[in-house]
Amino acid sequence: MREKQYPQEKIANLTLYSRIFNTEFNISFFVPKKDQCSLCESYKNADDIEKVLKDEKYQLHLSEKNLSRIEKENDKQLASNDINRSNILLLACYDLQAVLPTPRGEVSVFYYKSKLSTYNFTISDIVRKESFCYVWNEGEAKKGVNEIGTSIIKFLQSECNIGKTEVIFYSDNCAGQNKNKFITSLYLYATTNMDIDSITHKFLVVGHTQNEGDTAHSVIEKQIKKSLKSGPIYLPTQYVSLIQTAKKTGHPFKVKELGYSDFYDIKNITECNKKNYSINYDGEKVIWNNIKVLRVEKAQPNTILYKTSFSDTEFKKINLYHGGARGRNPSLANYTLKQAYTQKNKISVNKKRDLMSLCQDNYIPNIYHDFYKSLQS
């Protein structure tokens, strides 16, 4: 329109405008971060009166965020130095990637149908810069404590056989997957039955949990998007191949594909014996959501150590058999891991119906139909 009104005037195109805007001025377009901290955003958007009311909680939040980052940097330095010394410290973080759906592609009908979920639980060795991906789909198992715990056990079995006796994990604060009595019992089992002297788990502050697992998942997602340009992804096994080839430099991702018979009943470790997880040595109620650091030791097989702040200098203690069963305390040394499932996981009837409709209408090619028909519901 402007070119028609002023035919003699030279109009800059978008490319020229963008180049000048981004290179000749000390300004740029703001790109919002993903997963922004809700507490920080709430404080930032509050008026002056609200900020006064929120200030104490906000300052404590910032303090814990900064302390957690310092803690992690110190651990990285400690683990890096340990490689050239005793080489007994394993420093890792873990995280569950966002659900990987199948079928997936630029087919409009895919967006309106329920899809099969594939899960990738990634454990990253922070010092060696290696990532281990444990992959399964919902036709095999769920994505709860049994699945997460099994992945952790398999990681410890493979990595602690090479002389690692002290383990430090970092993760987010997801209570359903990471911060709970079941995963803690798993750590107790590991220190009792494996050549591990201690396992310490440090929880990054909510809203500020960016870690090496996120980096690995970003690399994987980039590979997936590249693949989707060539066509849809129809099977979970295609994700396995994409993860294996995603990393172009350094150590490739080590992928372990899991089936229903591979999973251990992690909850049974806790439930087989009556144990105390709610009262500490001082008679105080344990608020698990407030825990920042957990630690278990081979030398103290019936004790959980914990801190509620990264600034704490001393651990508080939980005696597992405080007020529990009389007589001799049961020992995890005599415990054998149980298989969690005797058959494949059943998907919902509605999901199975949607997937079969995609097959019947040939949105999913015939070569893949047998896989979807075999899913139980």
Looking at this protein, list some descriptive labels:
36% helix, Nucleotidyltransferase, domain 5, 16% strand
Describe the protein.
The protein has 377 residues and is of the alpha/beta class. Helices cover 36% and strands 16% of the residues. The chain has eleven helices and ten strands. Strands 1, 2, 3, 4, 5, 6, 7, 8, 9 and 10 form a ten-stranded mixed β-sheet that branches. β3 and β4 form a beta hairpin. α3 (38-45) packs antiparallel against α4 and α5 runs parallel beside α6. It is globular and about 85 Å long.
Total number of strands: 10
- Compute the gyration radius: what is it? 25 Å
Strand percentage lies at 15-25%
Task: Look at the structure and name the CATH superfamily of the domain at 86-272 and 332-345.
Answer: Ribonuclease H-like superfamily/Ribonuclease H
| Structural class by SSE content | alpha/beta
Oligomer: single chain
Q: Which percent bin holds the helix content?
A: 25-40%
Q: Helical region count?
A: 11
Order of helices and strands: HHHHEEEEHEHEHHEHEEEHH
Arithmetic mean pLDDT:
89
CATH architecture of the domain at 86-272 and 332-345: 2-Layer Sandwich
CATH topology assignment of the domain at 86-272 and 332-345? Nucleotidyltransferase, domain 5
Low-pLDDT parts are none
CATH class of the domain at 86-272 and 332-345: Alpha Beta
Largest β-sheet summary: 10 strands, mixed
Assign an overall shape: globular
Report the end-to-end length measured between terminal Cα atoms. 59 Å
Protein name: DUF7869 domain-containing protein
Organism: Schizaphis graminum (Green bug aphid)
Pfam families: DUF7869
InterPro entries: DUF7869
